[in-house]
Amino acid sequence: MPVADRRALRTRLLVTAAVVAALAVPAAVPAAGPARAAAPPPYRDPGRPVTERAEDLLGRMTLDEKVGQMTLVERRWLTAEALSSGWVGVGFSSGESRPATNTPAGWADLYDGHQRAALQNRLGIPLLYAVNAVHGFGNLQGATVVPHQIGLGATGDPALVQQLGRMVAREVSALGVDATWSPVTAVARDDRWGRTYESFGEDPAAVAALSAAYVRGFQGGSVADRDAVVAGAKHFVADGGTAGGVDRGDAPLTRAQVEALHLPPARAAVDAGAGVVMVSFSSIAGERLHGSRYWLTDVLKGRLGFDGFVVSDYGGIDFLDGDAGDISAYDVRTALNAGIDVVMVPDEWRRFHELVVQEVRAGRVPQSRVDDAVRRVLITKLRKGLFEDPFADRARLGAIGSADHRALARRAVAASTVVLKNEWDVLPLPRSASKVLVAGVAADDVGRQSGGWTLRWQGQTGNAMPGTTILEGVRAAVRGTVTYSPDGSAADGSHQSAIVVVGEDPYAEWHGDDDGDMRLSARDRAVIDRVAAAGVPITLVLLTGRPLDVNAELHQVRAAVAAWLPGTEGDGVTDVLFGTVAPTGRLPVTWPYDAVQQPINAGDGKNALFPLGHGLRYPATASPYATIGASFYDDQRGTAVETCTDVGCGQSVGRLADGDYLGWFGLDFGGTSPRSVSVRVASGSTASGWLEVRRDQNLGPLLARVPLSPTGGWQRWETRTVPLSASVTGVHRVYLQVVGPPDGTEVGNVSWLRFDR
């Protein structure tokens, strides 16, 4: 809306409110002197305390208007009639509910249109609009999608999570959106649960710290700031503790167990200032949370001191009478009396309105309960500054999906990546590799990287959401040839390494509940089998929202990383694979051997495949006194990798000619220099050459010269041992520089090298 129109609308609202206030005051005898314009009502005065403004407005409202503020309607049923009548006070977009034009401008138009309609109500009370920005605003084409919370849990970094919350808030608030149903404060205690990836992990203290950080990020220095949004912490409480990991199921826990395991993150979110708390669909010991006065009023509002508003989940109160088909009077009075302030109807707003009015007039819902609920909603809107700035801040739309935002998300992806296995220190992979294979359909799929809540409620495969795939990240990192083979059939011994990307297809909520074997799909297992059969060393990348049974597959690979659901910036994964960023991620959940062990958590006495907190680091140094595989180089020029028939070899580096070199980094010789170096070589050439062993650079100080003369065949291997011509101690890079005929004739292959004292 143009500034002039916005000012005109505000002026009209102020005048209307002033007239209403004037009509409410008894007529008085006119005083002598010039007439003065009536002052605006107190609730319109931003200089007054929020509580005073809310109380003034509450006193002017009819029962119908109050019930309207307690009504939350989904976009598809959010009509101009509902808004202008004042019968709907809160709106939202569900998982894939969006404007016809899914652009920042389209969203701003949607928001402003709803807000203009809402401001036509008698008292000019603005609409509060919310979305599910659970990992960035995945419903908006081109938004920055950050790792799902399970990945952020792996970072263990509250400061980073707060930064991400600030970034997400800036993108969402530019659209006009006022609130996000985030963070998820669930403590995931059974990985079969379909919402495990929405949790920060299994440890209550860690989840609490990160939940509070996300709240602070969303709400900024002041929730009234234009680039802040109201945080809606969910789902209260113990939704991650249901039996069997069944979404919306029952948590068979005592109150003491709930308070020890599941309440701390909710308390932390409240203490951090979360403006909204959403109730869980689930039950505790058979009691539905949507109808629990103990948990919602006695604990949340009482003991925890929560002063925002409590909102139901999507149609969540409909289940209270045992019939989920329609909302009933029993549902309404039970939910409201339990402590729910705003009901996500999401469509039957007229029916809900009638039932609330009926129950209040019959005395089954006290007027004081209604007033408390509405007061909380009004205070939230006043704190957000909606009465002063009700429209989208279109000047900031250009920041959505910006390079700075994507760079931050990429940093978060790298920080969330957990190195599970690193046999023979094959990671980090060399950027100078001559030829690398990338396999698996997930390697080139932003949708699989992003998981659920991305463009669709259940997510979707493919590259509809702009971003960088892991394959694109590999191609940007590697200087040599990158072969992409989705099914792995192109694997052969010429590839120095293979990056195989596998994992779960997108899902959300109960659709992701898994009571099966929790293994990779047959398709993904077949890819691993094909590449392993070709003898190419595999680095396995797992795109998953939870631990899977990969015990068998780990025996087929040299290295494995859990990349979780990283979002749009897949190059953050390759930053770790190629050593641009050192790995720092640690498991936020215990990783079992198989699904039979579920539920498995730290301290329960079960033997895990990887314990809570596991995460390997790249070694700063390596030993030159152990056998160093030639194909596991850190640097090279001009060489090629091929299948090797030598005992225990697997792969060798061949086609060596004059000017080629191989390099290995971080070799720690200690305080005493080795006396000799041995190199395993083969040559079917008629020409001869030398392997110059050099320190620090390929043309650095010479340590030894190893003859590279014919052995009678390219796979006839001999070990050549020579004394060092110079001493070396401490940590250094070591290079093999090839010296051969100047015409480029190939002179040999190398399998391994080793220094000896």
The percent range for helix content is: 25-40%
| Rg, nearest Å | 32 Å
In terms of quaternary structure, what is this? single chain
Provide the CATH superfamily of the largest domain: Glycoside hydrolase, family 3, N-terminal domain
Return the average pLDDT rounded to an integer. 94
- Total helical elements: 20
Low-confidence stretches: 1-33
The first-level CATH class name of the largest domain: Alpha Beta
| Main beta-sheet annotation | 8 strands, parallel
Strand content: 15-25%
Which outline best applies? elongated
Structural class: alpha/beta
Q: Strands across the major sheet, in which order? A: 10-7-5-4-3-2-1-11
How far the N terminus sits from the C terminus, by CA atoms, comes to: 79 Å
Task: Examine the coordinates and then state which fold CATH places here, giving the name of the CATH topology of the largest domain.
Answer: TIM Barrel
CATH architecture of the largest domain: Alpha-Beta Barrel
In total, the number of strands is 28
Tally of separate domains: 4
